[in-house]
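Bench log. Compound arrived from synthesis this morning; before running ITC I wanted a structural hypothesis for how iron/sulfur cluster sits in the protein. Inputs:
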Amino acid sequence: MKCDKCNSPAVIHQRYSGMHLCKGHFKDDVERKIKSVIRRHRMIEKNDTIAVALSGGKDSIVTLHILDSLFGRRPDIQLTAIIVDEGIKGYRAKTIETAKEVCKAIGMPLTIVSFAEKYGATLDEMMGQGTGPMPCSLCGVFRRILLNKTAKALGATKVATGHNLDDEAQAVLLNLLRGDVDRLARLVPARVQPGLIPRIKPLRNVPEKEVGLYALLDELPINFDECPYAGRSMREEIREMLNDFEVKHPGTKYALMRSFEKMSEMLGREWVQADLLQCGICGEPTTNNTCQACKLLEMLESP
Ligand code: SF4
Ligand SMILES: [Zn+2]
Ligand SMILES: [Zn+2]
């Protein structure tokens, strides 16, 4: 099959657009989508310091690469990378090595922060205590707070994550199916809150498969290992459902996000974000007097 733009061999058929694209035109298309979303949501502005949250997987590594190629030579924009070591045996060490390799290759500073160092125990040790919360709940809360603290310490004005179109569409549908409008409203690009570094998602308009193909074509070192705690969740079921719909009705994921963007204007008006307080224990922003991480730490420490 030939590229619809230049007649070179095609590397992809985008069913949702009807286009066959060669390597060069496919990469241009991905970069165009990223630039357009950055511009539309004013994700990156003059004098920003962007901390890219790496996970070692393809999405965050592609985010780092593209941000570096778009903004790496801009004197008014600084880029840096952070990886959180939760302490997951047989998994995290390899992804940290990949993150180091990628950052070294492009001369990007990398900060590694660990649960062990900041919270006194690895995720494996926390789970070994046999306490209530599920691993992903613990991991999610501690990771989010640690990322925010580290980004602040590095002087970052934004934290960039590797969430792609599929992640965003899954999150919208998951929150709708759970009736969780509060979480749905939080997906709307939020207003700036004191102490909370705004998150940006430059890949939110790029389908997951295309992020994978981009990484492959650019020969980026990617880890395909899966976290041993990743289980079968409702999100996984939604992911399969959306993929199935996308095959039968190409463009479903984009249509879902278009609906959400329209709804989000109303959500932003009607669902006013609560003002954040400061955690009485650690000082991080929180909706209550004590943040979720400090509550979980208390729970883990209690006999
Ligand atoms: S699967 Fe769960 S435990 Fe593993 S890294 Fe992701 S959130 Fe953390
Ligand atoms: Zn072409
Ligand atoms: Zn706290």
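What the model suggests: The first helix runs from residue 23 to 40. Strands lie at 12-14, 19-21, 49-54, 78-85, 110-114, 158-160, 199-200, 277-278, 285-286.
ITC booked for Thursday regardless.
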